[in-house]
């Protein structure tokens, strides 16, 4: 019975589930010690402890050991070698080139994604309704496509022999792109990878930012126009400040996601990326499962998590500051 | 929604529309191209002058994808693993969400930080120890082992989103029910559960999508007999890199449930990540 009445309340939930209880309700009603919430949270805590905290501890331990394939089969405890794995990777030029590559990719891809995402969001506010609907529907489809699938579609489109991209570029007079291999030169390969990541990332950014833009008060924009502000000034001084919290959040998320780039490289490079295509995620994986260097792989993963920790802490602090969390 | 039309030049709108249409064309092209390829016979797929419409549309690619080794097994596995993970995460997650949304308790803030933080750690970073653990417990090559890791994959998001849905149910309703003589359990069962129904559906659908799309963990832990369709797609690609027609058809079949589900619940998906930032 209640379910029938629920739509009145429920549809509003997605729009603002964050809205804390009404101001008065924030004050805890009961102060006496309650065990119920702990019982409720217990199963989740157990699962998180068993399948996240424990593995993480295990990873730390393994990163200080020298674990090889034979230890995996015999179950023998691998020898403790202290910081040797860390010394090894931190003094390895290859590791640092991987870190640098991952960082550069993250900065470039996030910058392009955010700028384009914002541009598309602004564009959605300028076009007529029909075009906006077409844009939203298209982006929904792109957003829905699994990462692995979109990577394969791109792989097919840039195929050296039968790919449509080479065919189209070849049509340009004076350009010979027949049988052009996009991955022979890592620079071009990374352009393909970045394009794929940006293409797949735009829908989330544009749609979220467009939703944010609708929150910018009309009066402000109109007042700015009346006062003779240019479009650029309005954007800089009115729109962006209002949008700032949202921009910070989506930028942080994009940094975290793109820093962990794996799927696209993995699929485009046939599950065995060359040195020039390794990112921190693929590098750790290749070390562990390709070469059975579980300890070195673990050390790389630990360093990766440490590198991301700052950004993650920033994100969580941001969520608290916005007051969403309470 | 937007500034009054009178203040805008018609030329401006036309220009914006042109850019908008151009954007749509560029964005949609890969989607169009996979459809175009999937319905082409092999001779048209491997052609140096690709046609922009299948000349002789055929379902052969779909047939050969379905008949390919492990396709049906992996389809079944995927369904089992995904539903186990979703049901598990929903039950466990709902209880935890209830605790966060409805109670103030010692350690609540810490719990929120853990949930938010864990949501950001890629499961991939923990793949090595997970593999070692499950290997020790003889759970590699089983559907159960993967299901367990998938529960943890979707649990943080589940808790976080459900928390929002529960918080949106006015507390006064709980209290009214309690005053009317309902027990705690009855309040939960008669008030909160039905009112969060749509939220439960949306959250579990998103959990389904996440679990369905995962392939790295399952590809590392399991053999083809115990993998899912995404892993199948990856294997298929490496083994027969040039069979593009069946591959694109397989990709279409594999993404179909995800795309349909996603379109059904997309309104709710971004919420867990950016909620609160879009406040009126």
TrEMBL record, chain A:
It is found in: Cell membrane. The chain crosses the membrane at residues 38-57, 103-123, 130-149, 190-213, 246-267, 294-316. Residues 1-29 are annotated as: Disordered. It is a multi-pass membrane protein. GO terms for cellular component: plasma membrane. Keywords: Cell membrane, Membrane, Transmembrane, Transmembrane helix, Transport. Coiled coil: none annotated. Residues 99-315 form the ABC transmembrane type-1 domain. Belongs to the binding-protein-dependent transport system permease family. This is Sugar ABC transporter permease.
TrEMBL record, chain B:
It comes from the Bacteria. InterPro entries: BP-dep_ABC_trans_perm, MetI-like, MetI-like_sf. It is a multi-pass membrane protein. Its main location: membrane. The chain crosses the membrane at residues 12-35, 79-103, 110-132, 144-166, 187-209, 243-265. GO terms for cellular component: plasma membrane. Pfam families: BPD_transp_1. It is found in: Cell membrane. Keywords: Cell membrane, Membrane, Transmembrane, Transmembrane helix, Transport. Residues 75-265 form the ABC transmembrane type-1 domain. GO terms for biological process: transmembrane transport. Belongs to the binding-protein-dependent transport system permease family. This is Sugar ABC transporter permease. It comes from Phytohabitans flavus. The lineage of its organism: Bacteria, Bacillati, Actinomycetota, Actinomycetes, Micromonosporales.
